Amino acid sequence: MRRLSAAGFTLASCFAAWSASAATLSITHVSVVDATGTPPQADMTVVVTDGRIVELGKSDAVHAPTDAKAVDGSGKYLIPGLWDMHVHEVFGDWLPRDEKVVPPLFVANGVTGVRDMGGDLDVLKVWRAQIAAGRLLGPRMIIAGPMLDGPVPRFPSSAPVANAADGRRVVDDLKAQGVDFIKIQSLIPRDGYFAAADEARKLGIVFVGHVPDAVRASEASNAGQKSIEHFTGIFEGCSTIEDQLIKGPRGLGLNVKTYDPARAKTLIALMAKNQTWQVPTLVWERGQWLVDDIDLSHDPLTKYAPRSWKDHTWPMFVSDIKKDMDTDPLPVRKKFVQMELDMTLAMFRAGVPFMAGTDTAAGVHIFPGFSLHQELVLFQQAGLTPADGNAQSGQVHGPHGGPGHGRERQARRSRAARRESAREHRQHAKDSRRRACGALFRSDGARSDAARGGESCGGRACACSEARGSAMRAGRPRAAVVALTAGMMALGLASAPDLEAKPVTVADLLAGSPAADWRVPNPEDTLYLELPRGRVVIELATRVVPQHAANIKALARARYFDGLAIIRVQDNYVVQWDDESHRRPLPPSVRPSVEFTADASVAGRFEALPDRDVYAKEVGFLDGFPAGRDPRTHMVWLAHCYGMVGAGRDDPAESTGAEMYAVIGNAPRQLDRNVALVGRVLKGMELLSTLPRGSGEMGFYVASEPPVPISSIRLASDVPEAERTAIEVLRTDSATFRSVLDQRRERHESWFKHNPGAIDLCNVPLPVRTIPSASP
User: Angle, to 10 degrees, between the axis of helix 386-394 and the axis of helix 415-428?
Assistant: First the structure.
C-alpha cells in the first residue's frame, strides 16, 4: 500500500466534483491505467477525499473510511481523463450555440478537456465560466477564439489578415481578449503569417494550426509553430515539386504522385528536432477524403446530432467537399488515407510528439467525445499500441508551454512493457463505438493550467468498462451532487433527492471573488455630486468621450456647477441639472463636441456579450460601461442604461457637458448614438431616483416647485483622500463578472419556473462595493 500526495500522482485532481454528504469516494477492485506505458495495475482501490486521491493500493491492503461512498470497479479501468486537442464547439451559423449537446457529450465519453481551435470567443468564455461554477456539464477548455485567415476568410469565427500589420494587430487584440493561444488558418498571406508568429513570440503566446498555403511546413516548424493540424503542409513538404505546390494549384493526387521518401525522412527529422506536435485528426481526414465511400445513413450516433447539423452543417460540408476537395479518383484518395496512417507511425517512431484531436464537430458525422475514441482506434490502425494512443490523449505534455516530452517518454518505455500494455488493453479498446468513459475533473485553475502549459491531462481520471461507461459531471465540490448526475445514476449510487443543490447566487460569487477582480476608480475620472441628502459618485468614460470628459473636469475645477440645481425630474426617464439662466461663463478650454461614437481601437477594451440586442449588432462592456459595437465599421458607443450619465443638447448635435442628466428609468436606448454619454453613477442612485417628480412639461420643475440645489461637483482627485468615498468596482473583464453574467442569464432558483437563458445589456448588474479595508 502507498500513500500519495496530490502533487505526487498524475490522477490526483480527477474526482473534485463530489458532494459534501459524500466527501470520500472509494473505487475498489479496479484496474488502474496511468497512461505512462507501465502495465495496468489490477485489483486496486483508490480513495478520493475532497476531490483528491489520498490513497492507492491493492484492494486487500487499502481500507477506505467507513463513511466513504463505494464504487465497485470490478471489470473496469481507471484511466486519465481524455483531452480532445482539436475541436470547434460553437462556430457561427455553421455550428450554432448548443450547450445542451456539445459540452455534455465530451464528458459522457470521458473527455475532460478540450483545445478549442477556433470558435465564438464570447460564447466559449461564458461556457467556461459556467463549467467552472458547476452550472454547465462540460470539459475544461483552452480557447483560441477567432482564427487568423486571409483577407476573405473561408470560415466563420475568423479574423481577416491582409498583411503584416494585420497579423500583428490581430495577435495583439486576441491576447488582450484573453485567448490561450493563436490559431492559424490556411489563407493567411505569407507576410501576415510571419508577422503574427513574431508578435506571438514577443507576447509569449503560443501559435498553432494549419501550415498556410503560402508557407512550407519546414518554415512553420522553424518559426516556432507549436503544433500542425491535419498534416497540413506535410505532404507538400515531402513532394518533389514543393515549390510548385506552394505557388499553387495543389491537390491530393499531386501529393500522392510526387511523394519522395528521402524528403519525407528529412522533414520528419526536422519535426522531431523542433518537437513540432502533430494533430493529424485522422477520423476527420478519413471522413473527408472518403465521404462518398462511407455509408453513414445508419450511424447510431446520429441521434445525438442537433437538427442544425443534420439539416444545414453536414449537407453544406458534403457539398463543399465533393465540389472542391474530393476531385481525385477514389483509389487515389484511399491511398492517401493510408499514407496518412503511415506518416503517423513514421513520425511517432522518429520521436515526433502527437496529440489526439478530431475536428469535432466541424466534420460530417464527427461527434463530441465519441469520435475521440475512433481517433484512438485509428492511431492503433496506424501501428501505435493502445497504450501509445491513450498516451496521446490521456496524458498530453501539451504545446502550450515547455518543451514536449514525446521522444524522451518513448525512449524510456521498454518493448516488453508496451507488449504487455497492449495485451491488457486489447479487450478494453475493442469497440470504440460501444465504449464510453465517465470522467470527473477539477475545474478550478483551468486557465492557469493552460497558461503554464503543464501536463494537460495528468490530473483527471475516468472509470469505464467495455460495454458501457458512466457520464459524470465536472464541477466544483459545492455543486457536487449535481456534478455526479449521470454517472452515479448509471451505477445505481444516487437517487433523485440526492441531486438537489443550492443555486449559486450573485452574493455568493461576489463574496468568494479574488481581490484582483476588483478595481478602484481613478480619482481623476471620478466626480462627486454633492446634494442636500448626500453624495452621488459618477465615473467618467474618459477614453470614449475625451473632449466631454476634459470639459467636465474643467467645469468642475472652475466651480461652474456649485450652486446650480436639478431642474428636471421626469418619471421613468431622467434627472437633469443645468444653468437654467445660461448666464454663467464657460472656462476657455471648454469646447463643444459631437462624441456619439468612438473608434474601437482607441476607446478601450470591449467585452462582448453573446446575447442578441435590438439596438446594436453587438453589445457588451467598454472599460466597464455598457456599450454597443458595430463590427463592420469598428465603432463603439455607450448605451442608455439605468444610471448612465449624458450631456444634454439641443439641435445641432454638439454639446459640452455643462448640462447633464442621469437615466432613472427604463433604458431609453433609442437615444444611443444621438447623445454623448459621459459616464455612469457608481454610488448614490437612490438620491437621484427618489427625487420629487416635476409637474411641468417633460418633468421640469415649475415655479411652485423649488429645484434641488447642488452644493458642488468636484473631481475626487481634488478632494482630500480622507474625504473620498472608498469604493471599488467589479472588473468587467474578470472571471467573477463572467460568472455573474452566467448566473443572471441562467436562473436556477426555485422561484423561476422558466429559465430565460439570456440577458439584456441593461439588466446586467455592475457590482460596486465599499472597499473591505475601509469598512468600519
Answer: 80
Peptide bond into 652 cis (omega under 30): yes
Tally of CB atoms within 10 A around 721: 9
Contact 95, 708 (CB under 8 A): no
Enter the pTM of the model.
0.57
Written as nine digits, the cell of 295 is 455509408
- Residue (of 275, 274, 211) closest to 238 by Cα position: 211
Cβ–Cβ under 8 Å, residues 529 and 710: yes
Coil, helix or strand at residue 20: helix
The answer to whether 529 and 538 are in contact (CB under 8 A) is yes
Residues sharing a CB contact under 8 Å with residue 287, sequence separation 6 or more, in sequence order: 294, 363, 364, 365, 366
Is the sign of the CA dihedral 323, 326, 327, 330 positive or negative?
Answer: negative
Q: Residue 323 class from Cβ within 10 Å (0-12 exposed, 13-18 middle, 19+ buried)?
A: exposed
| C-alpha span between 263 and 492 (Å, rounded) | 57
Per-residue CA distances from 47 to 14, 483, 485, 704 (Å): 12, 18, 20, 78
What pLDDT digit, counting tens, does each position of 672-715 carry? 999 999 999 999 999 999 999 999 999 999 999 988 999 999 99
Number of H helices, E strands in the chain: 24, 34
Largest CA distance in the chain: 99
C-alpha angle 532-537-540 in degrees, rounded to nearest 5: 135
502 confidence band (pLDDT: 50, 70, 90): low
The C-alpha atoms of residue 230 and residue 461 are separated, in whole angstroms, by 27
